[in-house]
Amino acid sequence: MNGSSQIDPDGLPLPDAEAAENCAAKAREALTARPKASDWAVLVASLYWAVEADRRAIAATNAPPGSTAARIALKAVIQFLEKQPCVMQRGASMPLIELQGALVDLAAGRVSQLLKPIVKPPYNPGKGHHDSLRMGMAAKAMSLLMDGGIREDAAALRVARAIGIESRTVRNWRNRLKEGPGPGAPQEAVRHYKEALPPWPGSTPIQQAERVLELLRARMPVRTKSQEPPS
C-alpha cells in the first residue's frame, strides 16, 4: 500500500515504523500540553447537544437528512482541537476540516470528492456501517444479559424492546455473529460483537448490557419495520 504495508480492521492504513516513531513523539508532547478543563467541558456539552438534536429530529437549514448531528459534533471537535497548539502544528486538524467542508457542500447541492462512492462492486456489498454496528452491539447486549443470568428468550426480548425490533431478529443476529463472519454476519458486525467494552469499573454484566443499549438508543433512532434490515 502507499506508505504502509498494514491496515486496521476498517481497511485504514496503519503507521509504518517512521510514522509510528513520530506519532509516539507527538503523544509524549501532548501529555505535557493537556487541554483546559473548560475546553473539554464545552466539547462534552456540544457532543451531548448533537445527540439530543438528533433525538428531537432538529435539522440544520438546508441539510441532507441525518447530517445535522454529525455536523454539530464535528464542528465541536474541530473547535476543541483548534485550541490545542500541539494539534495545530503541521495542520493535524485539516482532515476533519476538509470533511466539515464536504458536509457543508452537500447542503449547497455539491458532492465533494470525499463523499463520492467508489465504483459499485459487482457483488452485494452487504450491510453498511450503521447496520453492522447496530447488529453487533444488540447481539453483545443480549449476551451480556444472559451472562447476568437472564434466560435467552427474555434477553432477546429486552434488547428488542429497547431498540424497536423483533426479538427473533436479535436472537438470529447473535447466533450468526457467534459463528464468525459469513452470510448474514458481516465482518464489521462480528468485530463489534466480540471486541472488549470500555472499562466500566464495578459494573455487572447486566449493567454493562444496559449501558450498551443506552448507547444504541442515543445513536440510533428506533426504526419502523419497513426500515429494518433483514434478520
Q: What can you see in these coordinates?
A:
- This protein has 231 residues and is mainly α.
- It folds into 2 domains: 34-115, no CATH class; 129-227, no CATH class.
- The chain is 57% helix and 0% strand.
- The protein has helices spanning 17-31, 37-55, 68-81, 85-88, 94-107, 129-147, 152-163, 167-178, 187-194, 205-219.
- Helix 3 (68-81) runs antiparallel to helix 5 (94-107).
- The longest helix has 19 residues, at 37-55.
- The chain is globular and about 55 Å long.
- The two termini are 36 Å apart.
Structural key phrases:
231 residues; mainly alpha; 2 domains; 10 helices; 57% helix; globular
How are the secondary structure elements laid out?
Elements: H1 17-31, H2 37-55, H3 68-81, H4 85-88, H5 94-107, H6 129-147, H7 152-163, H8 167-178, H9 187-194, H10 205-219
Helix pairs in contact: 2-3, 3-5, 6-7, 6-8, 6-9, 6-10, 7-8
Q: In a few lines, what is going on in this structure?
A:
With 231 residues, this protein is an all-alpha fold. The chain has helices at 17-31, 37-55, 68-81, 85-88, 94-107, 129-147, 152-163, 167-178, 187-194, 205-219.
N-to-C series of helices and strands: HHHHHHHHHH
Instruction: List low-confidence stretches.
Output: 221-231
How many distinct folded domains?
2
Q: What is the helical fraction, as a range of percent?
A: 55-70%
Structural class: mainly alpha
First and last CA, distance: 36 Å
* Portion in strands: under 5%
Give the count of helical stretches: 10
Q: What Rg, in angstroms, do the CA atoms define?
A: 20 Å
The average pLDDT score comes to: 82
Largest sheet: none
Tell me, what's the shape? globular
